[in-house]
Amino acid sequence: MSVVIDVNDLTWEEIVEKGDKPSLVMFHSPSCAYCLQMMPFFEQYAIEYKDQVNFVRMDIMGNSFTPERYGVMSTPTFKFFCSGRPVKDIVGAAYPSLLKKLVEEGFKYGEGCISNSTRIDYDMGYV
Fold first, then answer.
1. Which domains does the chain have, with CATH numbers?
2. SS3 letters for the chain?
3. What pLDDT, in 10s, does the model give residues 96-114?
4. For helices 96-109 and 33-48, what crossing angle results, to 10°?
């Protein structure tokens, strides 16, 4: 049983930006060899930290709005969100221990993680 939450552009806001827990997001694509290599570790940490962090996965091939909004240029890209705001990220294949460190540092800084994040501007300027 996987505790990883698959999201799309429509469910992103509810799970990540307005979620009740911090989120570690993996932006991936089906043809990405490094994504396939990292996936078992991502799923393992999702089980380990399931009570503290939402582990979220988004396929960038079927969802272009959200990855573009957060500057995702390649896969895999891992972003840690605190109170709906991006705090830190890792791009590309990384040692699995770096993912774990990303989560642990999010807890280490606690309330301070929000002060290190970027404010989300919901006004998209399309009007």
1. 5-113 (3.40.30.10)
2. CCCCEECCCCCHHHHHHCCCCCEEEEEECCCCHHHHHHHHHHHHHHHHCCCCCEEEEEECCCCCHHHHHCCCCCCCEEEEEECCEEEEEEECCCCHHHHHHHHHHHHHHCCHHHHCCCCCCCCCCCC
3. 899 899 888 876 765 556 5
4. 40
Chain centroid to CA 3 = 14
Structure tokens belonging to residue 100:
């774990």
Q: What is the pLDDT of residues 24-38, one digit of tens each?
A: 999 999 999 999 999
Contact 92, 78 (CB under 8 A): no
